[in-house]
Write the structure tokens for this entry.
Amino acid sequence: MLFDPATDKPQDECGVFGLYSPEPNDLAWLTYLGLFALQHRGQEAAGMCISDGEKFHVDKDLGLVTQVFDERRLDGLRLANARVSIGHVRYSTTGSNLRFNAQPLTTRTNKGILGLAHNGNFVNAREVRSAMLMEGALFQTTNDSEVMLNLIARESHMDLVEATAAAMRKLRGGYACVLMSRTQLLGFRDPHGVRPLVIGQRDDGAYVLASEPCALYAVGARLVRDVQPGELVWMDRGGLHSLMVEPGRPTPCAFEWIYFARSDGELDGVDTHASRIRMGERLARERPVEADIVVPVPDSGIGAAIGYARESGIPFDYGLYKNPYAGRTFIAPTQEARELKVKMKLSPTSAVRGQRVVLVDDSIVRGTTSRQIVNLLREAGAREVHFRVSSPPIKHPCFYGIDTAARKELVASTHTGEEIRELIGADTLAFISERGLREAVGGPGLCLACFNGEYPAGTPLLNDVDKLALEV
């Protein structure tokens, strides 16, 4: 599992968006709004495809949505009779951060031009790709999304829906994809539902697919339902259609509720904000401590901190201020620079002075940033700092869309709880239990592979675990 060095958080995966409108619409603008709402899921690249039934316009580049799509580039995507669009915000999980790896990917086939946007990872992508190369297939990128697109394209005797279903049966892993032709929009999800995908509808009849409900709301759509694990849906002039390609065995990624998903929606029927509050309540019952205030690490620790405060009766307060302008503006090259970036991003408030603080965060990856935050509170006069974490210890890499890093970089895989406490300088340290997390989220079964090493959707071959495995 890779992390943002400045925050020591797991990197967001990717965000996908798609829209089918029965009547002409300004899909460039609507897709822009949907991608902007999903920006938290990927900050390396952004792109979109638009079709009016004949023309097929594509634009993508490295950067944030607002950096890639200025008014000039949006005008270049506007088609008078646009009816189908897809979009993508990317954090590179397979394939390096280069412009040619930006999505959506497109290809010409006997079914016309196809565009694909993908969130997640195919764990058998390299072996499938190698077999296709032996058969003469050509690849233009080094990301695993192109493997899916090639599988669909090569089924020349099938229509688009049949070819997509056939490709789904050949690839394993955790994924959610949106696919478009000139006249159809398709969405599909792996049988375990590891990565999320929801369906929405606007009052004008347009259907929307997105990684999270926040993108639906951004374009004026209401949530209809989740795409079910193993399901393929498609939209055309006949409306919304569905095919269960494989039996669903739901184990969605627990980190969607712990950290990744925005707090203003629900996935698989589970409210994100409410689940984070329940995590904090459960954490307070499992790991109580005498203290004066409960302080969240903003923003991802806020829900759990509210829950901890409610259950424990200890007052909640904002003991850390987050600078809203200190985003992902640069990559700090040295440890000293990373420590300064943390101070640029977070600063303690007077609320912690002289207090016994319960500091609540969603996860600890390496522990370096956690140590810096503890030090900030002590420098500000906190008498004690008790660290509480609303996820279990992260001990294993993820192969389903959270970029894989060396296991040795995960502090919980090489240190005991007491050693981590000493490393970060807290008076006490405690994590929520796996059982507590399951019960707090409720709803479907969960993928907890990064905590317990049990991978429901399979694992790649040992030599395929690197992010650049397809760069051969």
